[in-house]
Structures are given as C-alpha cells and as structure tokens.
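Re: the pair you flagged

First of the two:
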Amino acid sequence: MNKLVSDFDFSEVLRVLKKGGTILYPTDTIWGIGCDATNNRAVAKVFKIKGRDADKSLIILVENFEMLEKYVAEVPEVAYDLVKNINEPLTIIYENAKNLAKNVPASDCSIAIRIPKDDFCLALLHKFGKPITSTSANVSGAPSPLYFSKIDEQVKNAVDYIVPLNQHVIERPKASTIIRITENKEIKILRS
C-alpha cells in the first residue's frame, strides 16, 4: 500500500458513507461520486447530484470476489479468470444483481461491477465492508472530468465529502473496459 493511503485517516469518509452521504473520490480510473450502494436514499442523492435519469444503472466497486458474490446471483467462472489476468481496469456487467439499493441495477436486473486494483479504493472498500457506487463526477450529459480540477463546482458543492487525496495528480486516467457476460456465458465487449 502506498504511503499516502496508509497514512490517510478514513474516519470521516467512513462516517459520511455510513450515514448515507455522498463522496467525491479518486477511483482506479477517473474521479467518481460514491455512496453506499445498498442504501436507496444515498443512491437517490447520487442521481440528484448528476441530474441523471433514474432508469440508468450505476457501476459499483467491490473489494474482492467474496464481496462480489454477495451482490450477484451467480458469478460465471470466466469472470474470475478475466479479473485475475487483466491488469487494466475492467468493469463486468453481471446478470441478476441482488442485495443492492433498488435504483443501482439496470431495469433488466444486471449490474456493472469492478474490483479495483487501486490502494485507496481497496482500503476504503475493506474498511466500509460494502460496495460503493462509482459514477463519473459530472452532471449527466457533460463530459467526464479527467482530473479533479476539471470537476464542476456544482458537483463539488453537492457532495457531502471530498476525499483530499490525488487532487493534483495529472496522469491521464483511462476509463475501464466494460464487458458483459450473458446468461449463455458469452462475452461482449461494450467499451475498450
């Protein structure tokens, strides 16, 4: 774990998440708006901040396969291999989400999930013990901001807590590859 993360005091971000608040945080890709993905009211706040249609689903982050298995009815075997062997951020859309806020999965009950390989995200997920939403830190329809400095003030003012890490990092982040594993175990690449 990098020193910035090991020295970070997680108490405030955890307090906000546990009380159903929203956070602005650095993910393994771009900055995201996060909340407890099992809390209906918290998720509704994320949709309100983004001005996003309620019929659109959200990506969630989980710490590991053990956590993943709590929120998907069945994890196809190929998913384990893909997550273990692909080093770039990989979001997989699974069928039959469960145990999540009603407004997180898509209308067909599918759910987009990523297991990050980022020290901060993994530490936060471990300490929180539940999945966290990870939607881009922008108002719906606006471009996704690649850096903290590009995040709209409206978004910054609307969240309950801004994580004070990596705000000056200017590496070009890469959006995750998104694939869908169908009920027939076919793999469809939706974004690469």
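Second of the two:
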Amino acid sequence: MSVKAEQTQKRAIRALFTRIAKRYDIVNRVISLGQDQRWREVALIAVAASDSGRLLDVATGTGDLALLARRLYPELQVVGTDLTPAMLEQAQQKARASEIGLPWTISDGLALAFADDSFDAVTSAFMMRNVPDVAQAFAEQARVVRPGGRVVCLEMSWPRHFLKRWLFGLYFFIVPPLFGFLASGAHAPYRYLPRSVRSFLEPGALADTMVQAGLHNVTWQARMLGSVVIHTGVKSISPSPNA
C-alpha cells in the first residue's frame, strides 16, 4: 500500500470512529449480545499480567480493556493509546466516573510513540481489521514489548464452517446496521463492520503475520461460533552475545 493510500485509510478510520464514539459502547454491547466485556477479560487472562508489570493497550478506543485491566490488577501500570481523540475523550470520561487514573495518549498503531522493550505486555481489541498494514502493526507491538513479554490480539473473524458463516452473515449484515441507525441515526459505519470482518485474515494467516513480526509460541482460541478469536504471541528472547 502506498503512503498516500495508507494516510487516506487512516483518515477514513479516524472519521468513522469520531462519528460513532458516543454510541460505540452501547452498540458493541448489543451486537455482541453482551459478551464483548467477557472477551476482553479472556484476553487479559491470556496476557498473564501481574500487578508489578506495565501494559500498553493499543487502539484502546473508549478504554474498556485498559480500565478492565486496572480493575483486575490494581497495581498494574496501564497505558491506553488510540488514533482517534474522540474515542479517548470517552475513555477519559469513563475513567473519571470510575475514579481510575490512567494515562491516555494519541498514537498511531503503525508508529507507536514508545521506546523499545518498554512494556511487559501489549494488547489490542478489534484493531487489526482497521489498520492499513497488519504486519507493521504487529511489528510495532513486538518492538515496544520486552523480550519474553506477550502480545495479545482480540479480533473478529468470519467463521469457516458453512452453517456458522451463514448464521453469522445473516446476523451481522442485519443487526449492526439496524441498531446503529436506531442508536445514532447512522447505519453506514455499521455496514462497514461485517464487510471488514469478512475480508479480514483467517486465524492461521493472522498467526503467521505475528510470527513474521518476531513473535513465537503463537496460539489462538476461538469464541462465539468462531467469530471472535484471541491470538497470543511471545516476543523472542535474544541470545546472549557471549553464548
């Protein structure tokens, strides 16, 4: 993808999420049948975090995963970063209402504004379908996590079984646009959702991309008829120069 095309896609994604930021949470709860927070909890279990570590949540959106991480691990140092200021405004409001103090930063997932090896774990939820370069996004996450640290990706996937694909398509091409229109007066952003899932990488291909980014021991677990997948990878530990 050319630099111009990449910048065009970033602007389009920022505009889309700016438009739906205030209704993002309620629509997510409805179209996931109330399961999206549970999926985030499972992703955090895969992180194997501890209270003494540092976690970066990339494309944090309205901050659900970052805030949940702090609730589960009260002493964990959590940083949330996102490309869209309107989404971070919602995260900040939720954090204040919960009396949870977290740093929120604006950062491009393809060029994270953090030093190498500076986090014990990196997470992302429903991010990768929206970036113009998935390999670069994982390479950046692998760069900022320490050797031996984990990168966990929670993402949607189009089921491979025929009946599951049919059921998923029937639901996703009807419910999100309809409810999105009722909740926000706009259905176009929610038409984008099923299209982006259907065209996205299958779990095996996504795992291969993580390996190419420098992660190993890559595994995944599927939920909700295979429509939600949690990938986990570990950053390789470089051998000692004296070895």
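The radius of gyration is 17 Å.

-B.
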